[in-house]
Design goal:
This protein is α/β, with parallel strands linked by helices. It folds into two domains: 204 residues, 3-Layer(aba) Sandwich (Rossmann fold); 150 residues, Rossmann fold (3-Layer(aba) Sandwich). It contains 13 helices and 13 strands. The strands form three sheets. Strands 3-2-1-4-5-10-11 form a seven-stranded mixed β-sheet, with helices on both faces. It has a four-stranded parallel β-sheet with strand order 7-8-6-9, sandwiched between helices. A two-stranded antiparallel ribbon has the order 12-13. A hairpin with a 7-residue loop joins strand 10 and strand 11. The chain starts with a strand and ends in a 6-residue tail after the last strand. 49% of the residues are buried.
């Protein structure tokens, strides 16, 4: 390969930019002539919004800044690439732009829908005898990509959630009132509860942990929930509950939609979920008379680079580097996956896997890892997630706040 391009898609993470570092550094190591960035993902690429990463990353200081920069440095998108039969001109345009810029390697950092883009472009290239290779680089705080042990971005989000929950528990327990305040913390997770499960990490020798954890994998029963809160209220002066934004009742209806109007959907047809904690807080206040508080972590859990996991940063760099190395060896239509060795000490191996087995396949938390009493996560989950949040990379500060790398 002589010239390659990298893009970012979907929701950002605290370490998504580290994968750009991995792509860039490995490309330079292999003697690749140019590394371009597509601004705002494939949508920006279609507008020929392309930059030369040498303008930013030739400086080692900027590489260190980029590792510590939240959000998507190149800009992201939620553009759904249509099937070939529906939009032949779109595919022709994409390959025309690639050929115009003499780009022979295409790297896309993202989650399920982004891997679908890689799949369709690599299939089109194969069917039309195009020379370009296409590689997927995993990214998602939701941790729901199949095959891979976990996804870059998840460890840092889990670290932020566990830390924030511990701080919320301390705050909520500050007052010696006769009746407890019920604090309900809403955590991202549409159909998979990996992020909310991370609330279990708040429990240690200095923190009692949350009083309940509710994931989308198990139907949510409002009546049982109210009874649980009533029982806890007779035993405790502070109650903190962690819930996934996507918890559903036995009929498959989102709890956050109770009493709400029609929900908007994004470009991929996904409902925009929010308000689950507020809905439950209002129900508890109405049925029990207890004081309630709803906290929605929202984008904070994916943008908190100041508390990113060093393990997560290093793995995000590695998956970018492995993707470039594989493409340089002629591989295409694949995604980098992480395989955990079955040893006492945590160790990850990196492999390339057929994108067709990954795109649009959602991996959920194993039911056997979830306590049906909703008061904790079982030991296999804790052993799985604990190594992912280890280590820190101290931000670079100026005048008391972190400095980030931004496009000109």
């Amino acid at each position: 390969m002589k010239r390659i391009i990298v893009g970012q898609s979907g929701g950002p993470t605290a370490v998504i930019n580290s994968s750009i570092v991995g792509v860039y550094q490995k490309a330079k190591e292999l003697g690749i002539e140019k590394v371009y960035g597509m601004v705002y993902g494939i949508e920006g690429f279609l507008d020929e919004n392309i930059i030369d990463l040498d303008d930013y990353l030739a400086d080692d200081n900027n590489i260190e800044l980029l590792k510590r920069t939240p959000s998507a440095f190149l800009g992201s998108c939620r553009y759904k690439l249509p099937p070939f039969a529906e939009a032949k001109e779109v595919y022709k345009k994409i390959f025309k732009i690639l050929e115009k810029n003499d780009i022979d390697g295409f790297f896309y950092i993202g989650g399920n829908d982004s891997m679908d883009t890689v799949k369709m472009l690599s299939d089109y290239a194969k069917e039309n005898n195009k020379k370009q290779v296409f590689m997927g680089i995993p990214k998602t705080i939701d941790n729901d990509l199949s095959i891979t042990d976990h996804c870059p971005g998840y460890g840092s989000a889990a670290k932020y959630i566990a830390t924030s929950i511990k701080e919320i528990i301390r705050d909520n327990a500050s007052f010696g009132v006769k009746k407890p305040t019920v604090c309900i913390v809403e955590i991202m997770g549409r159909h998979a509860g990996w992020l909310t499960a991370a609330a279990a990490l708040a429990k240690d020798d200095t923190c009692e942990g949350v009083d309940a954890i509710y994931l989308p994998e198990i139907p949510f029963d409002i009546d049982k929930f109210v009874k649980k809160i009533e029982k806890l209220a007779t035993e405790k002066k502070s109650i903190v509950i962690a819930v996934s934004e996507g918890i559903v009742n036995k009929d498959g209806n989102f709890i956050c939609e109770i009493g709400a109007g029609e929900k908007k959907v994004d470009a991929f047809g996904h409902k925009q979920l929010s308000g689950c904690a507020k809905t439950l807080a209002d129900i508890i206040a109405s049925k029990t008379g207890l004081k309630t508080r709803a906290i929605e972590l929202s984008t904070l859990q994916r943008s908190a680079t100041h508390i990113a996991s060093l393990t997560d940063i290093e793995e995000a760099i590695n998956v970018g580097a492995v993707a470039v190395e594989g493409a340089n060896n002629g591989k295409t239509g694949m995604m980098v996956v992480m395989e955990r060795e079955k040893t006492k000490n945590y160790k990850i191996n990196y492999q390339l896997y057929d994108i067709h087995s990954i795109a649009n396949v959602e991996r959920k938390v194993p039911r056997e890892w979830i306590c049906t009493k909703h008061n904790k996560m079982k030991d296999p989950f804790l052993k799985y997630v604990t190594p992912l949040i280890k280590g820190e990379l101290i931000p670079i500060y100026k005048d008391g706040t972190p400095v980030h790398l931004v496009r000109k």
